């Protein structure tokens, strides 16, 4: 079967996107895994289907590059909104459904996509690390000094992700360094089982932890290896956040067909 696909990226977090509004496409775990493979397929951190759902502009169905359907992907959601617009779904505010519930999104004049994330009602902390869910589960570890650039994120992230506490369900692991204006985040992603250039739900979690340490901010600028993002929010309690928006670029890379 010939499959038409579109490749998008959001700060270097890259995705294969397939238009499934006719509901004809069903992919196996092996097929998604192969389509995301950087040598035997197209190559991507994840794959998304643009599907239909009554009451919404569209439904987002997200798979990690290991081929398994997973929880929310922030950068993926932003890319899917851009794709929907390129497919002729034009709205001033997009309203779509994903695995973690409904989302709103807006494409700004500078072409950045602002995506509303689910509310966060608390976080667990022990020693200097934090665990919270921003649509996907995240472990956030602040790193001191200027050590983050040099860190072996793949190895350090893997040891936390496969520790007894997290091995079964898995977790995404973020290392965060405070900058004079914002934070620098590097993420080991569950389901990719490697560092990615950026992770939207991870950047969101890290920004909220940063806000948790300092009440004075409602917008955090975020540097990732793949580019710049920002997270805006309203802090409603000690560890409670609402009106959380993940903001950043989302770009079309190429289109093609592949035999599956
Ligand atoms: N890249 C994503 C996160 C995708 C889901 C994650 N790998 C998981 O399985 O939890 C993002 O931008 O949020």
CATH architecture of the largest domain: Roll
Low-confidence stretches: none
Helix content: 10-25%
Shape: globular
Strand content: 35-45%
Structure description:
This protein has 260 residues and is of the alpha+beta class. The chain folds into 2 domains: 2-117 and 250-259, Diaminopimelate Epimerase, Chain A, domain 1, CATH 3.10.310.10; 124-243, Roll (Diaminopimelate Epimerase, Chain A, domain 1). Helix content is 17%, strand content 44%. It has 4 helices and 17 strands. It has helices spanning 29-36, 74-86, 153-161, 200-213; strands spanning 2-10, 13-19, 46-51, 58-64, 94-98, 101-107, 113-117, 124-126, 129-133, 137-142, 172-179, 182-189, 194-196, 219-224, 227-237, 240-248, 251-259. It has a 17-stranded mixed beta sheet that branches. Strand 4, helix 2 (74-86) and strand 5 form a beta-alpha-beta unit. The protein is globular, with a radius of gyration of 17 Å. The N and C termini lie close together (6 Å). The ligand N[C@@H](CCC[C@H](N)C(=O)O)C(=O)O is lined by residues 13, 64, 70-71, 73-76, 136, 172, 189-192, 199-201.
């Amino acid at each position: 079967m010939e499959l038409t696909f579109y490749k998008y990226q959001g700060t270097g977090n890259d995705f294969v996107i397939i238009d499934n509004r006719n509901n004809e496409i069903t992919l196996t775990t092996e097929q998604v895994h192969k389509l995301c493979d950087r040598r035997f397929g197209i190559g991507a951190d994840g794959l998304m289907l643009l599907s239909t759902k009554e009451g919404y502009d569209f439904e987002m169905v997200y798979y990690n590059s290991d081929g398994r359907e997973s929880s929310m992907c922030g950068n993926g959601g932003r890319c899917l909104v851009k794709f929907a617009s390129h497919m002729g779904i034009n709205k001033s505010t997009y309203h779509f459904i994903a695995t973690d519930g409904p989302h709103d999104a807006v494409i700004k004049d500078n072409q950045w996509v602002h995506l509303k994330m689910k509310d966060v009602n608390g976080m667990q902390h022990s020693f200097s690390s934090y665990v919270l869910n921003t649509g996907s589960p995240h472990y956030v570890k602040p790193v001191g000094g200027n050590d983050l650039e040099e860190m072996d994120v793949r190895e350090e992230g893997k040891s936390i992700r496969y520790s007894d506490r997290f091995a079964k369900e898995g977790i995404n692991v973020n290392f965060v360094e405070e900058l004079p204006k914002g934070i620098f985040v590097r993420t080991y992603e569950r389901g990719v089982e490697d560092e990615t250039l950026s992770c939207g739900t991870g950047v969101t979690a890290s920004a909220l932890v940063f806000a948790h340490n300092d009440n004075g901010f409602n917008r955090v600028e975020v540097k990732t290896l793949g580019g710049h993002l920002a997270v805006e929010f309203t802090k409603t309690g000690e560890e409670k956040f609402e009106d959380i928006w993940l903001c950043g670029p989302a770009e079309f890379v190429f289109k093609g067909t592949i035999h599956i």
